[in-house]
Amino acid sequence: MCIYNKKLNILQINLGRTKAATTHLNPAVVKLKTDILLVQEPYVYNNKYRQQTSATIQGLPMSWNIFTSTSNKAAIFIPQTIHKAITVAKLENTIAVKLHTDNKPITLISAYSSPIADINTTLQEIQDIIIMLPNENFLVGADLNGHNPLRGYHRTNTRDQVRRKDQKNICSGKPKPKKYMKKVKRVKSVGWKDLSTEAANPYGKHFKAAFRKTIHPSQLTVLHNTNPERGHQKIAQDILEQIFPLPNSTPSLTHEIVTTPNDCPFTEKEIAQVIDYLLHGKTPG
Asked: pTM for this structure?
């Protein structure tokens, strides 16, 4: 796939992990005047790229800037040094770089998913990157091994069906709805209702008012099923009185006060006798 515009000429290509395709890449770039390459399955020698050793990828000029994913299954090649790019995200099967143009920056994303891998893993990586780019231009070049008659295949496979199903969420940058949210919504709506079977039970109203988001504090009239003219403060006071009712009988706080006479004071004779029995001399220790 080759995309042209006034500023950039972008080429997406799958090299099939072959040395021959990599060797013919440089002449093709010169012929097509390509600025950026979104590459899937590049040729890797000993699982290392030319950035790490000069003898890794043969046939590529040393001046090329190469950005790779963690698994080395997706890469972005920038042949021309005038285009400066920075890495936005480096994931297992996806690599994203930001390129500054004359108008505004654009993020380029290259991704790959092998036929035996879970396609949802790569789709989630692409979506996570797009979510980080609010109101920014981006371009995705991905090889997800999805078969579709529009691309020359005889029939559509399940991987392409998954891609088309999630394409709307991915392009919109909105998080994919969680599979368990249906159960969460049901628990919120009927969970406390099942626990509190009697609507007249004040504890049922208490739990609903505290935990159910369907009834807000401003809707106490709906919860209490009373006339709204009474006011929210009065309705809330009635609910509290039902939850914590006052006791019917109050315990008696009266008790007998026992008065005892004070002890007789010591006499001078008793005090003198105690002093005589005190130890004289140096204090022990």
From this structure: 0.52
